């Protein structure tokens, strides 16, 4: 399973596009659609890196997302529909596979992917650097809405 158009658009909408490096809300050097590293060598983004073109960014996003798709597939024990998968790839892209693996969100999905309490589990992940961020509240709601659509 690969991320669908809805999931891809959700990620693009929430990450935004930045051709030049910037610092994310917790101070990490970031570029493109929220990239903190480059493939294939996983070199971290530095603030003096050259700009990316949109074409480079689109290709990087798809390449990087394949890692997150694989993480989600590896951690799932239940079959999901496309929207559910897309929501989890977005979540994992933003928070990492380690957080997904340890989450009650994943436990509930692997027990019963239709459990309505899954909404609450998405919404718990609203902090960065220990602070609640409005953008993360909106993103988790959008992921939850996609998951149950």
Brief summary:
Its EC number is 3.2.1.17. The protein has helices at about 5-15, 55-75, 80-95, 95-100, 105-110, 120-125, 135-145; strands spanning about 20-25, 30, 35-40, 45, 125-130, 130. The chain is α+β, with helices and mostly antiparallel strands.
Q: Can you give keywords for this protein?
A:
two-stranded antiparallel ribbon; EC 3.2.1.17; Lysozyme; host cytoplasm; glycosidase; single chain; 7 helices; alpha+beta; bacteriolytic enzyme; 149 residues
Commentary on this structure:
It is an enzyme of class 3 (hydrolase). It comes from Sphingobacterium kitahiroshimense. By secondary structure, the chain is α+β, with helices and mostly antiparallel strands. The protein starts with a helix and ends with a helix. The relative contact order is 0.16. It contains seven helices and six strands; from the N terminus they run αββββαααααββα. The strands form three sheets. A two-stranded antiparallel sheet has the order 1-2. The chain has a two-stranded antiparallel ribbon with strand order 3-4.
Chain-wise SSE layout:
Layout: H1 5-15, E1 18-23, E2 29-32, E3 37-38, E4 43-44, H2 54-75, H3 82-95, H4 97-102, H5 104-111, H6 118-123, E5 127-128, E6 131-132, H7 134-147
Antiparallel strand pairs: 1-2, 3-4, 5-6
Helix pairs in contact: 1-3, 1-7, 2-3, 3-7
């Amino acid at each position: 399973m690969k991320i669908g158009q809805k999931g891809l658009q959700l990620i693009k909408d929430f990450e935004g596009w930045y051709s030049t490096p910037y610092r994310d809300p917790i101070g990490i050097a970031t570029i493109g659609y929220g990239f903190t590293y480059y493939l294939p060598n996983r070199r971290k983004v530095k603030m003096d890196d050259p700009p990316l073109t949109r074409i480079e960014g689109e290709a990087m996003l798809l390449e990087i997302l394949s890692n997150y798709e694989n993480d989600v597939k590896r951690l799932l024990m239940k079959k999901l529909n496309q929207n559910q998968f897309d929501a989890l790839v977005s979540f994992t892209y933003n928070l990492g596979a380690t957080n997904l693996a340890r989450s009650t969100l994943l436990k509930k999905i692997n027990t019963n992917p239709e459990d309505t309490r899954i909404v609450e589990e998405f919404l718990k992940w609203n902090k960065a650097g220990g602070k609640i961020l409005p953008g993360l509240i909106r993103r988790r709601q959008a992921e939850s809405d996609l998951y149950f659509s």
